[in-house]
Amino acid sequence: MHFYTYKAFDAFSDQRSQWNALVNDSPSNNPFLSFEYQQSWWQTRGGGEWPQSSQLLLVAGFDDEKLVGIAPLFLANNHLDKPSLLFVGAVEVSDFLDFIARPEDLPEFIQGLMDFLKSDPSLPNWDCLDFHNILEESPSLEILKQQADQRGWNHQQTLLQPAPYIPLPADYDSYLASIDKKQRHEIRRKLRNLTQSSHLETLEIVEDLHLLAEETQSFINLMAQDPNKRDFLRAPMQQHLHNTAQVAFNAGWLQLAFLTLDGKKAAANMAFKYHDRLLLYNSGWEWAFRDFSPGWVLLARLIQWSIENDVKEFDFMRGDERYKYKFGAVDRHVFRVTLTP
Predict the structure, then answer these.
(1) Tens digits of residue pLDDT in 196-216
(2) What CATH number does the domain containing 243 carry?
(3) Is the domain of 16 the same as that of 121?
(4) What confidence tens digit (pLDDT) does each residue in 271-309 have?
(5) What is the span of the domain harbouring residue 250?
(6) Where are the beta strands (DSSP E) in 136-287?
């Protein structure tokens, strides 16, 4: 296996179809690894999380002319102020990250990558490999440990966050029966409260490209009503959300959904319908409608929509907010791995 580096996404653009084919076959197949999302993330450096001076380093492994693995990396000082190679997408706005390779190629790819990163004189100097948001079932975790042990490198694996999800049954009644009785009653009560009110409820999913920018801004405006999110939504972060919505729409996996009451937007969720999963990215709601719990109602409607549309897994992604478990989510976790020669 031989390795090449690319210092711009445009230099890799002729091979984007091969990139996405590898993502589709990789153990960590998810939208944050797609070429388009990664390129979009890099444009704003994660909505301003990283400085523009960060250096891109896409490392690709080839067997003859066949692309067999990708490590989308960039160089920046990590949170300990050490020059580090990190995954493109790290840390805050890309829930799941990993190397991109088929399972049978992954051990050889990571082994060759470690050799290449340490020995190639053309690469920038780095002190640490700092890989965030690797899911617990990823084989990369064990391979990285093995490689560190073999080389005598310092290896540290740290639990970052839970990433709760709901394995969905075949019908909505079975889903309701599977969750806590008190919570089941609470969901039904909130839905009944709204149904019995004078408000006309609709679920709207954005399907018109010409309305996408406007509707994405409406979603951002609802997010900003939460004081905890308002400071987060700086101009670069708003641009990241617009870019992400555009990328996901073009790829066919955006689900930007609004709950409206009497034609007014009461709650919104941005999610990704990716293969047979629905991944909930972010949400917002109109505080003027708080008496009707619009965020809860929309979530219940989306779970029902997911079951009716053959979604097998409703993924809340990172974060241990209590409401996720009230809707029946179970935990899996994401990890950070650091390797220091």
Answers:
(1) 888 899 999 999 999 999 999
(2) 3.40.630.30
(3) yes
(4) 999 999 999 999 999 999 999 999 999 999 999 999 999
(5) 165-315
(6) 154-162, 165-167, 201-205, 254-261, 264-274, 277-285
